[in-house]
């Protein structure tokens, strides 16, 4: 018999939880403790264990997210028409949403099912969980869920087998920006192999970027340095975050410190110093020696262009991934063209959504087509054939 339990903290999770999800750090209690401790102020966590008799056969991680207009749209340099459009979208999305997955990170890190349960049984259980949590939140938190969201799925994800079932329940299949992945060839052993594989044009581009990088010192930051420089790290993060066209959250200032404290060697922070001043940084999450997940970064705009900080960060991420034996470097979405220029490929992603207002739900498909434009960047080919 299939049944489930809903938990409101990682401390309540059954002992078998980590064994089942050992392949994905984003579902592991170590990570859940970190994000629960220092999640954005508008995000609350829920965890679901799905059991067959007494055995744990599937898990799900959900977030209740309070969307605020000031966080959704922080770049105010748009035309009058686009401002009005953003205001309309804000009115539609404003309020509480329930998410299967992790809004702070690109990718499908919201569920795992074992072979002991079918995907159809899992999805039917998930619908029951949505209904239960919707009622629980209304009763205990006096909040009404306006939107259900299931994110982010590659075209190969097994959950797509339930597309027809989702449609019957009122969920829309919405295409979103791709995830940029760098697949490391098995034969590569060091960053030199990457450089040798570049064609002449992109090898020259790499050398120019490194030349502009002259004077910058890059070093990994330990826990105490992260704590000491938390304000500066946050300032640099906000510089980049505030320039994004659309956001659903703002990280708290101590986010990177707590992640390092809880995730230890599975969380890396690298800082860029010019004359001993921190002018940029990037972060990585190590996912079980297979996937190197790029996380948040930041930089001082005074040095971004003339020293090509961002491009050099992308190169340094590849160097770390190749030198440490990772199979995939997950660059996530945004800035697709420049990520393509270092060798990343775009992999389409899909989300499923349902608004609790029937009229608005019927308009969803067209609205999100406008918010997620078609491919408007040129794919680069940096490697020799």
TrEMBL record:
One of its GO terms (molecular function) is transferase activity. This is GNAT family N-acetyltransferase. Keywords: Transferase. Pfam families: Acetyltransf_6. Residues 200-334 form the BioF2-like acetyltransferase domain.
């Amino acid at each position: 018999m299939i049944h489930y339990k809903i938990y409101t903290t990682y401390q309540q999770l059954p002992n078998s939880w980590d064994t089942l999800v050992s392949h994905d750090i984003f579902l592991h209690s170590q990570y859940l403790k970190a994000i629960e401790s220092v999640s954005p102020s508008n995000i609350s966590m829920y965890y679901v264990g799905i059991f067959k008799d007494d055995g744990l056969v599937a898990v799900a991680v959900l977030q209740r997210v309070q969307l605020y207009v000031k966080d959704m749209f922080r770049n105010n340099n748009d035309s009058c028409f686009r401002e009005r459009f953003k205001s309309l979208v804000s009115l539609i999305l404003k309020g509480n949403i329930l998410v299967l997955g992790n809004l702070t990170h690109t990718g499908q890190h919201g569920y795992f099912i074992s072979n002991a349960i079918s995907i159809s049984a899992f999805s039917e259980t998930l619908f029951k969980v949505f209904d239960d949590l919707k009622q629980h939140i209304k009763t205990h938190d006096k909040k009404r869920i306006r939107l259900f969201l299931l994110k982010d799925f590659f075209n190969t994800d097994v959950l797509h087998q339930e597309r027809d079932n989702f449609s019957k329940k009122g969920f829309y299949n919405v295409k979103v920006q791709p995830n940029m992945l760098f697949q490391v060839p098995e034969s590569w052993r060091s960053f030199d192999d990457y450089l040798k594989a570049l064609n002449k044009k992109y090898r020259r581009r790499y050398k120019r970027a490194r030349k502009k990088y002259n004077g910058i010192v890059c070093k990994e930051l330990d826990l105490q340095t992260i704590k000491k420089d938390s304000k500066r790290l946050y300032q640099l993060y906000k510089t980049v975050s505030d320039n994004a066209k659309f956001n659903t959250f703002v990280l708290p200032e101590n986010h990177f410190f707590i992640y390092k404290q809880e995730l230890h060697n599975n969380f890396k922070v690298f800082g860029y110093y010019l004359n001993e001043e921190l002018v940029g940084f990037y972060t990585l999450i190590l996912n079980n020696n297979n996937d190197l997940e790029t996380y948040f970064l930041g930089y001082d705009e005074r040095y971004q262009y003339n020293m090509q900080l961002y491009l050099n960060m992308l190169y340094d991420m590849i160097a770390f991934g190749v030198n440490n034996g990772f199979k995939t470097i997950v660059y996530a979405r945004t800035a697709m063209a420049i990520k393509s220029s270092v060798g990343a490929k775009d992999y389409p992603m899909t989300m499923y959504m349902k608004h609790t207002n029937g009229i608005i739900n019927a308009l969803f498909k067209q609205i999100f087509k406008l918010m997620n434009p078609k491919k408007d960047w040129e794919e680069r080919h940096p490697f020799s054939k």
